[in-house]
Write a structure and sequence with these properties.
- Helix 2 runs antiparallel to helix 3.
- Helix content is 31%, strand content 12%.
- The strands form three sheets. A four-stranded antiparallel β-sheet has the order 1-2-7-4, sandwiched between helices.
- The chain is of the alpha+beta class and 312 residues long.
- The longest helix is centred in the first third of the chain and has 14 residues.
- Strand 5 and strand 6 form a beta hairpin.
- The relative contact order is 0.17.
Length: 312
Amino acid sequence: MAPTPAQPLTPAARAQAIKGCARTLGFDTVGITDLSPTPHADALTQWLELGFAGTMRYLHRQAAKRREPARIVPGATRAIVVTRNYYNADPPPEPHAGRVAKYARGEDYHHTLAAPLEGLAARCVAFGATPAHTRSYVDAGPVPERELAQRAGLGWIGKNTMLIDPERGSFFFLACVLTDLDLALDPPFDADRCGSCTACLDACPTHAFPEPRVLDATRCISYATIEHKGPLPEAVAGQRGDWIFGCDICNDVCPWNQKFASSAGAMEMTPRLAWLRRDVFTDMSAEEFGIQYGSTPLERPGLAGMRRNCGD
């Protein structure tokens, strides 16, 4: 007797298999949503018109695709959104040193997440997705990760514009696989659990939040020390304290992080760069910088940027 042909997987069964694969690859949470237009398209337009993107002109070029994610990878219909925890507690301050944001204290997450994310994309293809319509993104390209993550049920967008997971806080990386694989959708996370709390807004020393869930990047310490070229903006230069790369203030004060953030533990997240002496870059050559920091997020501003950040 001939064997009975295997029944094709349902979208729900495929979704469960993909989620299991994501967790096996080291991701902490995973959700699935569609690529319909984002509900905050008008807010993005206004944000750009107000100049809150600063010198990040690429956001203007990407705006149309951020408003309509289906245009990012023609033919794709689903976003598989994953998170990976990077939290590690702050070590004690060091004399004559500057502080580096938690996410940047290990290897560059663009590199460490690339392989597992490609593995997830390959799993989609194995289930029948078209390679040409399946692409992975690690905080790159025109993907509105936080909006997709909220629609995929992974959390809500807090008043500091960060995605907050009610069980983990907000110290995690976001990444996506866009695909044409037919997968069952997860319900969105519709609750706003910030309530009346304004801890993140009140703690920002540069007043970078003109209103809840609106960030003026030109006043943000992270933007100034990472993305901005040239001298530090006046709004930031005298208010950034000991931060020389990025800033964690609005995350550190969040009650959800104070209660639920837990150590990542992964080797690539070891906080080896938490504090750096301010004179470490003074006499460093470009070659030496590349050897020591080329595989870390500090490569973004480069040697010149880090020398600027370490100045008074």
